[in-house]
Amino acid sequence: MKWLSKWRQILFLSVMTFVLAGCGKPFLSTLQPAGEVAKTQYDLMLLSTAIMVGVIIVVVLIFLYVIFKFRRKDDIIPKQVEGSHKLEIIWTIIPILLLVVLAIPTVAATFDLADTAEMEKENSDAVVVNVRASLYWWEFEYPNEKIVTSQELVVPTDEKVYFNLKASDVKHSFWVPAVGGKIDTNVDNTNKFWLEFDSQKAAEAGNLFYGKCAELCGPSHALMDFKVKAVSRAEYDGWVGDMQSVTEPKQAKTASAQQGQEIYNASCIGCHAVTPTNSSPEAARIAPNLSNFGDRTTIAGVLEHNEENLKKWLQDPETYKPGNKMTGQYKIEELDEQELNSLTEYLMNLKTQE
Amino acid sequence: MSTYAQQKGLGAFLWDYLTTVDHKKIAHLYLIAGALFFVIGGLEAMIIRVQLIQPDSNFVSAGLYNEIITMHGTTMIFLAATPLLFAFMNAIVPLQIGARDVAFPFINSLGFWLFLAGGLFLNCSWFLGGAPDAGWTSYASLSLESPGHGIDFYTIGLQISGFGTLMSGINFLVTIINMRAPGMTFMRMPLFTWTTFVASTLILFAFTPLAVGLFLLTFDRLFGANFFDVAGGGNTIIYEHIFWIFGHPEVYILILPAFGIFSEIFPTFARKRLFGYSSMVFATMLIGFFGFMVWAHHMFTTGLGPIANAIFAVATMAIAVPTGIKIFNWLFTMWGGSVKFTTPMLYAVAFIPSFVMGGVTGVMQAAAPADYQYHDSYFIVAHFHYVIVGGVVLALLAATHFYWPKMFGTMLSEKLGKVTFWLFLIGFHLTFFVQHFLGLMGMPRRVFTFLPDQGWETANLISTIGAFVMAVAVIVLLINVIITSVKNEKVGNDPWEDGRTLEWAISSPPPFYNFKQTPLVRGLDTYWIEKMEGKKGLTPAEPLGDIHMPNSSFTPFMISLGLFIAAFGAIYQYDLKTDDVFANQAGIIVFIIGLLITFGSMIFRSVKDDHGFHIHKEDLQDEDKGGKA
Predict the structure, then answer these.
(1) Residue B357 predicted with pLDDT over 90
(2) Residues B26-60: pLDDT tens digits?
(3) d(C-alpha A175, C-alpha B440), whole Å
(4) Which of A8, A169, A248, B20 lies 20 to 30 angstroms, CA to CA, from A38?
């Protein structure tokens, strides 16, 4: 009966794959919570699911009994029952009690997750990030560290990170599913909330969480992704130090990269700054800061990070992110292939990390 | 039937429908128009699912996709579900309360033509530079940024059709309050009438804020106002509030009549009166009331703060209680009954577990902090499709089969009906069940594509397959309708043989004046009471007399046509290139002509004396006994 045991193995494996696949990817799934906020929310999900599955079971049992037991078999007219106060009271009271069980942790968690008192304190050493969402990119400003980056948020693990969030054009919504629920970035006001990134879970997710825009914002809403690098506090401090040390645009090293830099300074720098210690006002920061472009994992948030994709993006951003604000802002067709290569080389070497 | 245009030419037939003020014919119009929009919305849904069948799909472009999702949602809610429910309300409610017609037949007709004018106007956008693309919610910051005139078609189209809905709602309120037959006390009203009554109240209070919101958005976009323009001192959060103060009750406007339909079907085919009638009525009112207290649960992530979120979370949970009461009452209606599984009953039975699924995910979302995860993800898409398809659409399909003989005098094929049922049910669960998990796995809603390697491929594929199964089910239904209409085998008053309420005591379809003599209502389920006492018909409440009927009128069509024309003028007076109000003279002229037609028709209606006509007693006596009360 060898074939049978083999079949069993295959069956077991396929069931396991299905179950594991059912939980999604560790860097993206709310079902694999990687921090205190997501965990709180996950626990609430489990509690509410448990209560609701209980309700479903009761309904389904009565349901099955009724539809099998009371099929029409003869022409006898059944007794016309008006109702039953006892039963009706039972199915009013029990749901109320179940809802109380759910309501108490709900209210408690609502207040916990909204508690941002720490960031208001003076001399607080909590990490604060100002998130600004624009069509279709994300800016992350660290007001205490006085640095600005974009598209890839870097945060320390195992401590609360506080966020101020707003949008600069239309409403977006900031969501890192594995780490915590979303909050909208409004055009009217600044929202505040906090997240915590668990070091162990972060390691399982390759220290890189996926972030999403969760509010319809235009054609490329689906492509408004960002990434979150969750690293240890020491690494984080190191990264901040490296970023702060870049006070002047980094000079290109090779000759061709220098040519690239010249092209960049002529056509790109008007929108894309290359110094993280950017002191220009928000309104002037109209495109992603590229100081550490070479360190990033994606191009434009969606393409794999390599030179070929960078060239494709520079040549035709509209194809890769319809409705983006970069299309038509520069004349890429004036560059020959060699110039494009130098520009790419320059950009890929914009790193603060070695 | 003398009122049916079998011997008349096509022109006379069309004229008859264009001018009718008869609630039964208006029901036909709503059914046809609603079905047309349902098919359009369904095709849009299929395009959505084909686009999402695999990652990085290029079936439609990003911008077009946003237009399609917007139109899918808008069409299904405003132009398909609502009018289809109106079709059954119009066909059945006046009969259920023993009335000759609705209180304002003219307004009833006007309501329909306004709805149609608005719906057609909205869909004209496809051919005039692109449909609206900011989602059916049309949140202000995005809808103000949206280029072209798409959003303007949305605001003005919905404004016109919303007028129609509002009028119909008021009409039903007045009808149900004033036109009940003698003996039909409020607590003897059938549940479908009750739910129509409560839903109409919700329409009255919910469509008014919608009208305001749409007006403000229209003025921001076309007439240079700044209500929602932050740079100009406006506020977009206000738009969200206004929209959801309408939007949440809207869900109940759809689901309550659906509950009503099922509350008619369960007792009929279980041959047992509705279990806990008074608690059903009370639960309906409670749901309607709570429906206005919970709108901010659509805005948990807007940043309203923990106090607002906590209050709205608990209020939302409370709605589960009356809904639960209803579910158990339906189950216990069947308990001890004699259940016959006809097609409508299959839908009713399948509705219970399907809707409970949608209900429990609703409670899960009421837990605000957990909703921060669900919000705007595919979990929400799954939830509201479980509620709207598993509740409203199943009810509409059930009602189509259940009331078809009463509306058209012939039965839809039970065999094909059951094929539709099984295909639709399986397709529905296949499509939407997996979407819960897609959402939990981090997939946001309203995305035109998704990148590979995020763990979403399989579920999206399954979902698309399910959508095709549902599409086949709808095609089978259409075939069923065609075959049935061609065969046209006439049926009697009570084709299901277990009818309980007044509408089953009258011929199928009823004569244009409904009951020859207004019936006397002797209790809940009057017709059942009479049948159980061995009587064939109802006890009349009055001697046979002349019947006063309203005249047909073309004016409602003209009023609506005028607004349809004016709407184009309102849009095209604005110059997109220069951002100038009243820049296009042709637009202004069209606007004025349209309004002249509308107001001219209204003046015509006001100054013209129209006393209607009388059907004389003698003529009634001569007619066959089919319409005997």
Answers:
(1) yes
(2) 999 999 999 999 999 999 999 999 999 999 999 99
(3) 12
(4) A169
ipTM value of the model? 0.93
Buried b or exposed e, range B203-228, using 16+ CB within 10 angstroms = beebbebbbebbebbbbbbbeebebb
Taking residue A316's Cβ as centre, other Cβ atoms within 10 Å add up to 11
- Domains A25-72+83-243 and A255-348 are alike in CATH topology: yes
Per the omega criterion (within 30 degrees of 0), is the bond before B132 cis?
Answer: no
Secondary structure (3-state) at A161? strand
Question: Rounded to whole angstroms, what are the CA distances from B530 to B267, B273, B517, B526, B537?
Answer: 16, 14, 16, 6, 7
Q: Which residue has the tokens 């995910």?
A: B361
Count CA atoms within 13 Å of residue B267 on its CB side.
Answer: 27
Q: With a CB-CB cutoff of 8 Å, which residues 2-21 of chain B face chain A? A: none
Q: Is the pLDDT of residue B573 over 90?
A: yes
Terminal C-alpha separation, chain B: 17
Decide yes or no: CATH 2.60.40.420 for domain A25-72+83-243: yes
Q: Which of A215, A225, A318, A319 to mutate to test the interface with B (most CBs of B within 10 A)?
A: A215
| Distance (Å, whole) CA B69 – CA B63 | 10
Nearest CA of chain A to the CA of B297: how many Å? 13
Which helix (H) or strand (E) element contains residue A235? helix A233-245
**A105: DSSP letter:** H
For residue B522, give the 3-state DSSP assignment.
coil
Q: Which two tokens stand for residue B12?
A: 């006379």
What's the gap in Å between the CA of B599 and the closest CA on chain A? 39
Interface test with A, best of B56, B229, B372 (most A CBs within 10 A): B372
Question: Do the Cβ atoms of A88 and B273 come within 8 Å?
Answer: no
B411 near B495, Cβ under 8 Å? yes
- Tokens coding B86: 């109106």
CATH fold for the domain made of A255-348: Immunoglobulin-like (2.60.40)
A171 with A184: CB under 8 angstroms?
yes
Domain ranges, ordered by start, for chain A: 25-72+83-243, 255-348
Q: Does residue B629 register a pLDDT over 70?
A: no
Angstrom distances, CA of residue B400 to CA of B101, B144, B326, B373? 21, 40, 22, 38
For residues B53 and B462, give the distance between their C-alpha atoms in angstroms, rounded to a whole number. 8
One-letter amino acid of B556: P
pLDDT surpasses 70 at B286: yes
Q: Strand, helix or coil at A330?
A: coil
Bridge partners for A128 per DSSP: A162
B354 by Cβ neighbours in 10 Å (0-12 / 13-18 / 19+) ranks as: buried
Query: For chain A, first and last CA: distance in Å?
Result: 58
The torsion defined by the Cα of B117, B119, B121 and B126, in degrees rounded to 10, comes to: -160
Predicted confidence (pLDDT) per residue in B143-190, tens digit? 999 999 999 999 999 999 999 999 999 999 999 999 999 999 999 999
Structural contact between residues B552 and B584, judged by C-beta atoms closer than 8 angstroms: no
